[in-house]
From TrEMBL:
It comes from Succinivibrio dextrinosolvens DSM 3072. It comes from the Bacteria. Residues 1-22 form the signal peptide. Keywords: Receptor, Signal. The keyword Signal applies. Pfam families: TctC (PF03401). Belongs to the UPF0065 (bug) family. The lineage of its organism: Bacteria, Pseudomonadati, Pseudomonadota, Gammaproteobacteria, Aeromonadales. This is Tripartite-type tricarboxylate transporter, receptor component TctC. InterPro entries: BUG (IPR005064), Bug_dom1 (IPR042100). CDD domains: PBP2_Bug_TTT (cd07012).
C-alpha cells in the first residue's frame, strides 16, 4: 500500500511539474495586422482577438501596420522574435503572391501556420446608383471603354487578382487603381472615383443593406450561389470565371517559434472557434468563420502558393 501511495504521489508531482512547465504567454500578445484599422482583415481580427483572450489568458493587442500592399506588416511579422509574444494575420492569396515575387522581403517558409480564421468569397460590386444593373452591363461597357476604372486593395493584392480574373475571363481591359486597403478601395467606389470594384462578401455586407444601400453586388466568385446573396448570380452563370475565388485569413507566427508555443495557440484558437458565443458574433458581423488547424492551414498556404505561381502570375503578364 505504501509503495502504491508513493507511486501515486510521484505521478501527481510529475503531472504538476509538466503542467507548470507548459508554455503560456508571459504578457500581452502583439497581433500584427498588415492593413489599416477598419479594413476587412482588421475587423475580423478584432472580433477574434477580443474573444480569444478568454482562452489565451492574456490581452491581445492589435497592431495595425498598413502599407505597401501588406509588405510592411508582414516583413515586421517575419522579423519578430519567435517567442510567442508576437503573432499575426496573413491574407491568402495576397501573402503568397507577394512571397513569390522576385526580391520579395519574405517567403512562405518564414512563417509557421497556426490556424485559418476566415474564408471569404469574392464579389464584384458597383455603387447602388450605378448605371450597371447586371454583370453583363458592366462587361459590355468595359469592352467599349478600356479606360473603365476599378479600385483595388493594392497592386497584385487579392482584390486586384479578382478583377484580373474577371477581366481575363470576360475579355476586357480596365484601369486598376490601387488604394491602401479594402476600406479605402470601397470608399473610392462610394465617392465615384472608380466604376467598379472587387472585394469580399464581409467587406460589403453592411454597405448593401437597408433602405438606402450604398453598393450593389453584381456577381460572386463561387461555383454556387451564396446563401447570403441568393439573388446574385455567380460569374460562371454569366459566362465568366467559373471557379471559387476569395480570401483566407489566418494566424501565423515567425519561423523559429517552438512547437510548444504553436501547439498552445492552435489549441487556444480551436477552443475559441468552437465557442457558441464566438460563432454567433461572427454571424452577426457577416464573417465566414472557417477554422483549420496548423496542418490544414499549412496545406492551404502551399496550395495558394501553387495557385499564385501557376495562375496569378499569368494574369499580370
Amino acid at each position: 500500500m505504501k509503495k502504491l501511495t508513493k507511486l501515486l504521489c510521484a505521478a501527481t508531482l510529475i503531472g504538476a511539474a509538466l503542467n507548470a512547465s507548459a508554455w503560456e504567454p508571459s504578457g500581452d500578445v502583439k497581433v500584427i495586422v498588415a492593413y489599416k484599422a477598419g479594413s476587412g482583415t482588421d475587423t475580423g481580427a478584432r472580433v477574434l482577438a477580443s474573444m480569444a483572450e478568454k482562452y489565451i489568458g492574456k490581452t491581445l493587442i492589435i497592431n495595425n501596420m498598413p502599407g505597401a500592399d501588406g509588405k510592411i506588416g508582414w516583413t515586421a511579422l517575419v522579423q519578430a522574435k519567435g517567442d510567442g509574444q508576437t503573432i499575426g494575420f496573413i491574407n491568402l492569396p495576397t501573402f503568397t503572391t507577394l512571397a513569390t515575387l522576385p526580391n520579395a522581403p519574405f517567403k512562405t517558409s518564414d512563417v509557421i501556420p497556426v490556424c485559418n480564421h476566415l474564408t471569404e468569397t469574392g464579389v464584384v460590386a458597383v455603387k447602388a446608383d450605378s448605371p450597371y444593373k447586371t454583370l453583363k452591363d458592366l462587361v459590355d461597357a468595359a469592352k467599349k471603354n478600356p479606360n473603365i476604372r476599378a479600385s483595388t486593395n493594392g497592386v497584385k493584392a487579392s482584390n486586384h487578382t479578382a478583377a484580373q480574373l474577371l477581366a481575363a475571363s470576360a475579355d476586357f481591359k480596365y484601369k486598376a487603381i490601387p488604394y491602401g486597403g479594402t476600406a479605402d478601395q470601397l470608399l473610392a467606389l462610394r465617392q465615384n472615383e472608380v466604376d467598379f470594384t472587387c472585394a469580399k462578401v464581409a467587406d460589403v455586407a453592411q454597405l448593401i443593406k437597408g433602405d438606402t444601400p450604398e453598393l450593389r453586388v453584381l456577381g460572386v466568385f463561387s461555383e454556387n450561389r451564396l446563401e447570403a446573396l441568393p439573388n446574385v448570380p455567380t460569374l460562371g452563370e454569366c459566362g465568366y470565371y467559373n471557379k471559387w475565388y476569395g480570401s483566407a485569413r489566418g494566424i501565423v507566427v515567425p519561423k523559429g517559434t517552438p512547437k510548444e508555443v504553436v501547439d498552445f495557440y492552435v489549441d487556444a484558437f480551436k477552443k475559441t472557434a468552437e465557442d457558441p458565443a464566438v460563432i454567433e458574433a461572427h454571424k452577426k458581423a457577416g464573417l465566414e468563420l472557417d477554422f483549420m488547424d496548423d496542418k490544414a492551414f499549412g496545406n492551404l498556404i502551399s496550395e495558394q502558393e501553387t495557385f499564385c505561381k501557376d495562375v496569378v502570375t499569368n494574369l499580370y503578364k
